[in-house]
Amino acid sequence: MEQATPQISQMNVLRAAPDCSCSPASFTRSVSPSDSLEAPMSIVNDPQAPAIEALGKCELWTHRILIAGFGSIGRGVLPLLLRHLEMSPRQVTVLTAEDRETEAREAAVEYGVGIIIQKILPENYRELLPKLLSRGDFLINLTVEVCSWDLMEWCRQVGVLYVDTVAEPWLGGYTDPSLSQSARTNLAMREAVLRLRETETAGAPTAISCHGANPGMVSHFVKQALLNIARDTGLETPVPTTRQQWAALAQTLDIRAIHIAERDFQVMNERKKPGEFVNTWSVNGFVSEGSQPAELGWGTHERELPADAGTHKDPLAPGIFLNRCGAATKVRTWAPLAGPFHGFLITHNEALSIADYFSVKSGSQVIYRPTVHYAYHPCDDAVLSVHELAATEFAGKYTERLISDEIVSGIDELGVLLMGHRKNAYWYGSRLDIDTARSRAKYNSATTLQVTAAVLAAVVWAIRNPTRGVIEADELPFDEIMAVAQPYVEPVVGEYTDWNPLQGRGALFAEPHVVRDDPFQFANIRVL
């Protein structure tokens, strides 16, 4: 990397040298945007326009914000932050690696934010971050291949608020062959984050772990879905206010399985080329998590572990993993527009956090827990990309193509499917289309706006509640979060279905492994 260049005329850019000898005070900022800049909306005939406009400036913010990582989510959340926080763009700095320098430079010109081109590494973050953040500031960590819990620990020591969208290890942590399969799971990553609580003191700065769309917003969808099912099945219940009450409600309703069921219908104007990996969000992020072991929260109704299942040392661990990667494992699921579909069982933090949150325990025994996992059908070109990479045992070379402007149509149907209750199955979630997403927030697609709206909501909540320490999405008040996020991800809908994973099975080929008397066993849901 070239040596530090403190000032670039009319650009608020600082390129850090390898020794991190950068000084934010030494670089200039663009003078074209005003200090009262607001990111404009171009909403036309959108029924959500009044609700979005009514959010206004959610909070006054007088400290600094550092956006670490400027891929699709970093770029998409910036206009939301400027629209809904009472602050100057001069308070915001973007820290990103060289692969996103072009986008960062554009943001510097358009919005007047500062940018620093430097990759965060294990050997430099303790020197780099103090030059950009101090007590009372905010770190929004949207990086890949940067250890979340190391940054959270640093923020706690300094007194900096923190939000991220994934519990991420340092580069290589997902695929290190020297690690056990258990050590490469999201359960291990989640435990590394939660261990920070062991040394946490009262009044520790708020650090919200894993709060994008999923993990994140889907945890709030689950709570609203439970209330809707209770209402529609005639169960009179007050809105739960504790973890134990929420778990008891799920148990009473007999929720046996929860899918984070997502079907991305977005299409682009130029199809994938051989050797390309195409996606509507981070290619590196998708490939990394797809290379981890398939993982799921394991319910108490399950009768038998899969033959290739692995378990963790802790007998109370909320999940299991499979000895195969998630991008090579498929499950059956359902969503209203898609109908029945096959999705990849990609490991995600919410599979563990939701299963854990809704566990009912008696002493040292778990007496109720739903099976929870992701069932993901990305856009069609991403599916083709996965198949092509799978042929190389996920070790092939590829060219990345992160699509945004190239998308010409489509909806990202993202929600939660709750199964086993008296009305069989209920899907609740967002059906956001690309045109609506673009009109509501610049530099967003249907996929990214579902994430960036949730990040915005988490930031606002942390500003309002700055001393809550390490906290997961499931522990946040769902109504307060959705009050900020939901106007951006509407339409949010709920729909019941009589679908189950046994429908149409066995007509052409015998399937002796299915469990006929309990449709929502994982053995029926998994595609073999």
Give keywords.
single chain, 528 residues, alpha/beta, 8-stranded parallel β-sheet, 5-stranded mixed β-sheet, 15 helices, 27 strands, 29% helix, disordered N terminus
What does this structure look like?
- The protein has an 8-stranded parallel β-sheet with strand order 1-6-5-3-7-8-9-25, with helices on both faces.
- The chain is an alpha/beta fold.
- It is built from 15 helices and 27 strands.
- The longest helix is centred in the C-terminal third of the chain and has 19 residues, at 446-464.
- The model is unreliable at 1-12 and 15-36 (pLDDT under 50).
- Helix 2 (72-84) crosses helix 13, helix 7 (217-232) packs across helix 14 and helix 13 runs antiparallel to helix 14.
Give the SSE layout.
Blueprint: E1 13-15, H1 49-55, E2 59-60, E3 65-68, H2 72-84, E4 85-86, E5 92-96, H3 101-111, E6 114-117, H4 125-128, E7 138-141, H5 148-158, E8 161-164, H6 186-194, E9 207-209, H7 217-232, H8 243-252, E10 257-264, E11 267-268, E12 276-279, H9 283-291, E13 293-297, E14 309-310, E15 319-325, E16 330-335, E17 339-344, H10 349-357, E18 360-362, E19 365-368, E20 371-377, H11 380-390, E21 399-402, E22 407-409, E23 411-421, E24 424-433, H12 434-440, H13 446-464, E25 470-472, H14 478-489, E26 492-497, H15 522-525, E27 526-527
Parallel strand pairs: 1-6, 2-4, 3-5, 3-7, 5-6, 7-8, 8-9, 9-25, 10-20, 12-21
Antiparallel strand pairs: 10-23, 11-22, 13-15, 14-15, 16-17, 16-27, 18-19, 23-24, 24-26
Helix pairs in contact: 2-13, 7-14, 13-14
